[in-house]
Amino acid sequence: MSQKRHVYAFHEGDGKNKKLLGGKGANLCEMTQFGLNVPPGFVISTEACLDYLANESKTLPDNLMNGVRTHMEQVEAATGKGFGDAANPLLVSVRSGSAMSMPGMMDTILNLGLNSNTLEGVIEQTGDQRFGYDAYRRFIQLFGKVALSVPDEAFDEEFEAVKQNAHVTEDVGLSADDLKEICDRFLKVFEKHTGRPFPEDPYDQLEIAIKAVFGSWMGKRAVDYRRQFNITPDMANGTAVNVCTMVFGNRGNDSATGVAFTRNPGTGENKLFGEYLVNAQGEDVVAGIRTPKPIARLAEEMPEMAEQLEELRQKLESHYKEVQDFEFTIERGTLYCLQTRNGKMNATAMVRTSVEMVEEDLISKEQALLRIDPIYLEQMLYPRLNNENKAEPVAQGLPASPGAASGLAVFDADRAELMGKEQGQKVILLREETKPEDIHGFFASEGILTSRGGKTSHAAVVARGMGKPCVAGAEGISVDVQRREAVAKGTVIREGDMITIDGSSGNVFLGQIPMVEPDFTEELNRLLRWADEAAYLRVMANADTATDAGRALKYGAMGIGLCRTERMFNAVDRLPVVIEMIVAETPAQRQAALDKLLPMQRSDFKEILEVMSPKPVTIRLLDPPIHEFLPTEQQLLSDLNELHHLRNSVRGMNVLAGSMMLLQDPELARQEADSLRHMVDESLVEQAIEKKETMLRKVRTLTETNPMLGHRGVRLGITFPEIYSMQIRAILEAAAECAAKDLEVHPQMMVPQVCTAEELKRVKAMVDEIRVDVEAKYGQKINFRFGTMIEVVRACMRADSLVEEAEFFSFGTNDLTQATFSFSREDAENKFLPMYNQNDILKDNPFEVLDEKGVGKLMQLAVDWGRQKNSKLSVGICGEHGGHPSSIAFCHRAGLNYVSCSAPRVPVARLAAAHASLQQQ
Ligand code: ADP
Ligand code: MG
Ligand code: MG
């Protein structure tokens, strides 16, 4: 059968080969080989595990036990002890370990090799009966439980019985005789549950243990875990078995055991961090039976050991060049290292250690950048909860937009605006779901909470765009807008009650939970500067207002890649004018409204250009279908209905008053008329009805079957040229005014939804005409660039002709993805995408992870065709993918110049851009 080698001594195994030896085994080998004090032992490979599992007869691979015996002899020689030797017994631990650490694999068995004979030897050698029996009873229980599934309770019952008979409450109160009795009882428990006597032969014990470890790879817990976390066979396949000489931290007060990090995993501080217990075995630290002491105390209790431990820390770090999380045991004054692995840290600690390890010349800047997963930085960039009192959430929804916020609950957008904006209170908008007309409530709120809808619901998408925390679809909350209250877990939340939402976890709490503000530490800034030096891609932000732009700068944005003018249209003081423009019946009426909008837009643009000077600001001309700015037909019908009621009652009153006159009771009639005087004049109601009816007619004429594929973007710009004219003029005048103040500004005009060069030509012609006019008016040349979004398939195909008009391309990958798949995003994500993903019909959600094979291919064609005609063509991306690390890597490979994403994502993107460059080298 197989001639493969299956067993490797710690001093010969390849420390880099985690796939073969498992993570724990590889590191035991590595540590042994670079001179750390690891108890002698050997690793049985993952290949042996796979061979065993593939073999139907469930026997170990040929010769495996021979290899084990040979290696055990080596260990015997190294330790001077004998496996099964009653006079001087060698005891070992049997530990599992695959290439990736995963719970669900078999637990470690300690003290293997003990039997009635070797036990005598241990007692003889240590002169400590109690120690001997304690070790034995631990072994019987662990072996029974771990290797042969004897339930813990069966052992615990006997243990408690002996304790009771001996009248002791603490384990330490048990005498050697008590422990001996426990061992006897345990052996019986073992026999009863397994139907065979406890194996006396150490090699039998070992063989059973090895098989159990191998078998645990296919155990339900392990299989479930691998499925849950997508651990594929190329990441980890099979488990290794580590056999390691036992060392004892429970041999008295000169012995101890502990776990430590070479640096603080919470803060990154360059100082040993961990815990230990004197006179204890490793498992006691984890089990939490006794409270361990902080590692700093070791310097007082065992100063010499503390020094050695510090040395061990230095050696580990200078070898692994990474923070280590390690296990140690001190047996009668000798320090052993039993395990090490790369330490898991929070983002703050990752960043700090990266920067400090570069300063210490431990790693290079490139290594410092590469050791941090870009997405990890998100943790640092949003406010997060400091839930020290462990408050229980009252509801859980989807983490729809990261960050946390506290505020007073409000149930509609108008109240949010009233309390949040006018009264300056912090509010959380709590609704069943949100609609475009709630937008002013978003602006006024700290965060958004909805009881319905998913991660792509209106609330989620808008909140993410604004960088506000959002929990969506918290179904445990029932909202009653009429009564201005909600109920969650039986608790009533009234308007004005304080609540806290965590958009990173989806949790909702009552009251205010303390918050940790995002920490833009000096270390993070330094790290990101290194990232910028290493990166080829430049990182822009999507920002719609000067405030957003300022925030983007804080995150290190190198410009604005997408400024959506329609967000400005939605502001409270603008919307009525925008509506006026839309409902205008004549060009003159429309022009009047546009004349009012021009100065507003000009000052908006000026502010953004000023804030960003001298960085580029890419402004997209109006994109959405204009009916989005109008009330919905449904809303209008219900308003009209109410107005008709009102008119009827006003009429009724007037009729009543009239009839009273007729009844010749002038006195009563006059009184009645007096009380009616404060009521609404009928003609006012009529006027209101007329206005609503006009609006309704307009809304109906603007209604489209497929608005997102309808009258929007450049199509709107060409059919209503006055709108684009106004915006173009506003941009150019804003630039001229900045330049007049000697501010260097770089506006870029971007046309949405373009599918043919002719469209771009028409808009360009408008631009040229207005430019001549504005330049004459301000007496200076205006510096700007003109470009196009690439977000429809035809635009990709026609890139070589679009490039004749456009100085830059910006891929709008949200729309381009919809267009490429012919999926509408909402429908896809709500209806069939999850099923497609689960069944591997599509691997990822293409709206989150850029579809390189389809959308990416179109992008690549467009880039190549564009650059063939204009090698200086600047190309970027401004869809949500622009902040996604793997999509950023693709953009790098495809030869883009920049990515643009939401402000808090900018640092993530900067690091991802650096990774993309470094990984290509
Ligand atoms: P885990 O993967 O759960 O950490 P380990 O194999 O590291 O499992 O072992 C569990 C505990 O037993 C740890 O505290 C470890 O330090 C201790 N241990 C393992 N092998 C030995 C040994 N040879 N001597 C002393 N303690 C050991
Ligand atoms: Mg361990
Ligand atoms: Mg678009």
From TrEMBL:
Key words of the record: ATP-binding, Coiled coil, Kinase, Magnesium, Metal-binding, Nucleotide-binding, Pyruvate, Transferase
Segments forming domain Pyruvate phosphate dikinase AMP/ATP-binding: 19-56, 58-295, 305-360
Binding site for Mg(2+): E791, D815
Catalytic activity: pyruvate + phosphate + ATP = phosphoenolpyruvate + AMP + diphosphate + H(+)
A Pfam family the protein falls into: PPDK_N
Active site: H458, C878
Superkingdom of source: Bacteria
Record-linked InterPro entries: ATP_grasp_subdomain_1, PEP-util_enz_mobile_dom, PEP_util_AS, PEP_util_C, Phosphohistidine_dom_sf, PPDK_AMP/ATP-bd, Pyruvate_phosphate_dikinase, Pyrv/PenolPyrv_kinase-like_dom
Coiled-coil annotated residue ranges, if any: 295-329
Entry keyword Transferase: yes
Limits of the PEP-utilising enzyme C-terminal domain: 523-916
Enzyme Commission number(s) of this protein: 2.7.9.1
A molecular function GO annotation: metal ion binding
Residues involved in substrate binding: R564, R620, E791, G812, T813, N814, D815
Cofactor(s), by name: Mg(2+)
PROSITE patterns: PEP_ENZYMES_PHOS_SITE
Domain (PEP-utilising enzyme mobile): residue spans on this chain: 425-506
NCBIfam families given in the database record: PRK05878.1, pyru_phos_dikin
The family this protein is said to belong to: Belongs to the PEP-utilizing enzyme family.
Role this protein plays: Catalyzes the reversible phosphorylation of pyruvate and phosphate.
Name of the protein in question: Pyruvate, phosphate dikinase
Gene symbol of the encoding locus: ppdK
